Amino acid sequence: xxxxxxxxxxxxNALNGNPQTTGKQVVIGMIGLGTVGSGVFKIFRDHSxxxxxxxxxxxxxxxxxxxxxxxxxxSQDPFEVVRxxxxxxxxxxxxxxxxxxxxxxxxLNNGKHVVTANKELIAKYGPxxxxxxxxxxxxxxxxxxxxxxxxxxxxxxxxxxxxxxxxIAGILNGTTNYILTKMTQEGWxxxxxxxxxQAKGFAEADPTNDVEGFDVGYKISVLSLIAFKQEVDPxxxxxxxxxxxxxxxxxxxxxxxxxxxxxxxxxxxADGRLDIRVHPMLIPVSHPLSNIQNEFNAIFVKGDAVGxxxxxxxxxxxxxxxxxxxxxxxxxxxxxxxxxxPIPSMIIDPATPAKLLPVGETRNKYYLRLxxxxxxxxxxxxxxxxxDAGVSLEAVMQKGINPDGTASIVLLTxxxxxxxxxxxxxxxxxxxxxxxxxxxxxxx
Length: 444
Known about the structure:
This protein is 34% helix and 26% strand. It is an alpha/beta fold. The radius of gyration is 25 Å and the shape is elongated. β16 and β17 form a beta hairpin. α4 (98-109) packs parallel to α5 and α5 (119-135) runs parallel beside α10. Strands 7, 9, 10, 11, 12, 13, 15, 16, 17, 18 and 19 form an eleven-stranded mixed beta sheet that branches. The protein has a six-stranded parallel beta sheet with strand order 3-2-1-4-5-6, sandwiched between helices. It has three domains: 12-148 and 318-353, Rossmann fold (3-Layer(aba) Sandwich), CATH 3.40.50; 163-314, Dihydrodipicolinate Reductase, domain 2 (2-Layer Sandwich), CATH 3.30.360; 359-443, Alpha-Beta Plaits (2-Layer Sandwich), CATH 3.30.70. It has 14 helices and 19 strands.
């Protein structure tokens, strides 16, 4: 590890990005030494410009797969790290929102820069924290909070800053993408693919946060905050998971020219309302997102000037996410060491509360799988139910007879509103021949 700095740049002027002298190390305090924190420590432990003052951990005796880790570096009190007068940058990697918010607020009010990979923290409290950072003339950077090692926050803020962003569609969760990939490639059930993901460490013992779309909800909320300057409560986002998707849905989608992916979607409407949602979608095989496999992530962006661009890479893991966190640390450290204000262009603009487009007013093509009695005129009755609701059908497929004697039927609609589709679905549900509604999916 690097030697301690001869003199910490601890006065208020230094903490605010204007050190009195140059050439000294930047003093780091880190909260969390788990998967990502360990990666950050490995990147910087011998770095000439970075000095770790203290690292807060829950269990100081835990084996962290770090050679020659000095136990004196560890503390079980995160507030000790935040309140250290010599520390210039707090790196928050503990996860969760409430305690993390308390720590980050105190750090910002103490004039310390903050780097975090905490998507829940930014999704829930980002605007409040950005305002505190502006007030105290410090930075809060969070490139690692969305899509692991894929650069997306800085590009949205700077590289695409001349654009009015029109749409973001992202595969933002490696666990669900791995599960859907295995279901597609191997013909596995959801349960089989989930068990494999857990065995390989891609899924938690309790996978709810991933497979029910909560994780993606936080991430698309953060992206909307940057791209549209719209503040979105992640709990207000329409959200559906992947647990009802079957191998039959995967195969039928393929026959129709689609693959199924869990998508975080945000589209700005002409009237200023934001269409933001998280759910599985049928992706045309011609679309770049259709080829994203296993634990990889991708973000597809449409801008009025640039057109369509896509960012792709590993969306999680020790070193990919640590790479993003380390880059944020270096961006701040470079300014501190050179006596400059750290990256003034990364001051996050104030956001306004988003006006959300009700999901019933969104427009989509739909895929519907259902089981009906195997009798004449069933297809005609389904067509009538759709027609009465103003829903035009693009394709109808009978997938055969099930062991219980029912027929498995798939409908693919033209683009309609969600309200129209729900009206048709309710009429279909009331038909005597309908035995079960299997899966309703939207098309990107």
